[in-house]
Amino acid sequence: MKRTTSILSTLVLSTVVAAGCATQRQVDQKIAEATMKTDTKIESVAGQVEDLQEKQRQTDVKLEELSKSSAEALARAEEAGMLAKGKVVFEQTFNEDRIRFASSSWELDDAAKAALDELAAKVKELNRTVYIEIQGYTDNRGSESSNDMLGQQRAESVRRYLNRQHALPLGRMSTISYGETAPVADNKTRAARAQNRRVVIVVLE
Length: 205
Description:
The chain is of the alpha+beta class. The protein is 60% helix and 13% strand.
């Protein structure tokens, strides 16, 4: 009887020890699996951070490559919350070759209207929602305040035409005047002043 009891005790003890070992192995395995998952998540997060940093770097480079007028238009549109993607689609400059503003005038002639017809078609071909900033510029004749007003009138003239003739929504177009502050020529000759009497249109999305 004592021998039987001893055998049973040994079997029970062995079973408990074996169970304990099995449990420890399972715990170790779960710890290893959890550690592996944590490491994977950390690597994934680190990769996402690197991707975001790279995208930011690319954005910074693109901003540096933009013309001053486009970069400023982009900043204004982003501040106003008008953009979905925050990028410049294209910039179009209209000077004496396409939109010929006479001195002190904001009237659009037939050549100017034809140029704007082409631009409107280009915008519609994009087939997506865009935001348009129209910038008006002048030569340096006249006072600074009168040139600021004249630049605004030129930009508004373009905005009205694009809305009335091509149904581009007024709510997606803004105007700003740079007046005489951003010349592309030195204003010393008639031809140079004509270059400065211009409109720049920036299309963003």
